[in-house]
Specification:
By secondary structure, the chain is an all-beta fold. It contains no helices and 11 strands. It has a 6-stranded mixed β-sheet, with no helix packed on it. The radius of gyration is 16 Å and the shape is globular.
């Protein structure tokens, strides 16, 4: 499958919807897992702002790669972000799109904002 690396160095990224466990089968409630590591996948909507334009993309991240407080509006960094084009056919209808996957999502909120011990 094709994987296209996404350069986020010139973009501003922030959480639009907090992380949730990714569901593989809505009927059974089965969680989605990474095929290689077996780790549970999480999804979150990320606001991607660049060149005066903004888009919200849903990004999947393995559970160990989700770190820091990721509430709505939190600025984040995405490590190893890739885009994967996909296409499938269901009930005779062809569908296609792009899915996004990252190795890690990290909060950029300074931990220094917390009071320091004297």
């Amino acid at each position: 499958m094709r994987q296209i690396p996404v350069d986020t160095s010139a973009a501003t990224l922030m959480i639009a919807q907090p992380p949730q466990k990714k569901i593989a089968n809505r009927q059974t409630g089965q969680l989605a897992v990474d095929r290689d590591s077996g780790e549970t996948l999480w999804t979150m909507d990320v606001l991607f702002v660049m060149n005066g334009s903004a888009d919200v993309v849903t990004v999947a991240v393995p559970e160990p790669g989700v770190s820091g407080e990721l509430a709505m509006g939190t600025p984040v960094a995405l490590t190893g972000l890739i885009a994967r084009p996909w296409e499938n056919e269901f009930n005779g209808q062809k569908r296609h799109g792009i899915s996004f996957r990252a190795v890690a999502v990290t909060s950029l909120v300074e931990t220094a904002a917390k009071p320091k011990a004297a």
